[in-house]
Amino acid sequence: MKARDSVLALLLMLSSPALAATPTAPVPVLDSAQLAAQARAAMARGEVDLALRLAQSAIVADPSRPSSYDALGDVYAANHEPDYARNYYEEALSIDPSDPTATKAIASLDRAGDTRKADASADGAKPGIP
């Protein structure tokens, strides 16, 4: 009988809530502004893939926030992908037509595009032909 009592006592002890695995701390949920800030920080460190994922996550977290689209546009612009950047800046402007970040960024992309066109024309010009 003693062995059986010891087994029952052990089973009761193991099933006790006090001995249950302690719950892990909840993972903090970041809002879109925090995700966008982290995306910019990752980009500054040269972590392009992480920056892209964080900026995309910012959009998923709050698709109605223009700054999330600005962050992703900034990542693409920094990586010399102006077409992708422009798409996200334009999306930000569709949400807030007065978004200063997107407005400035598109103007910058336009200036860079004009410079590339001028460089291409100069490279293609034949010397000595008026």
Describe the structure in brief.
The protein starts with a helix and ends in a 6-residue tail after the last helix. The protein has one domain: Tetratricopeptide repeat domain (Serine Threonine Protein Phosphatase 5, Tetratricopeptide repeat, Alpha Horseshoe), CATH 1.25.40. The chain has helices spanning 2-14, 32-44, 48-61, 66-78, 82-95, 100-124.
Describe this structure in words.
With 130 residues, this protein is mainly alpha-helical. It has helices at 2-14, 32-44, 48-61, 66-78, 82-95, 100-124. The chain has one domain (32-122): Alpha Horseshoe (Serine Threonine Protein Phosphatase 5, Tetratricopeptide repeat), CATH 1.25.40.10. Helices cover 71% and strands 0% of the residues. α3 (48-61) packs antiparallel against α4 (66-78), α4 packs antiparallel against α5 (82-95) and α4 packs parallel to α6 (100-124). It is globular.
Which features would summarize this protein structure in a list?
71% helix; 130 residues; Serine Threonine Protein Phosphatase 5, Tetratricopeptide repeat; mainly alpha; 0% strand; 6 helices; disordered C terminus
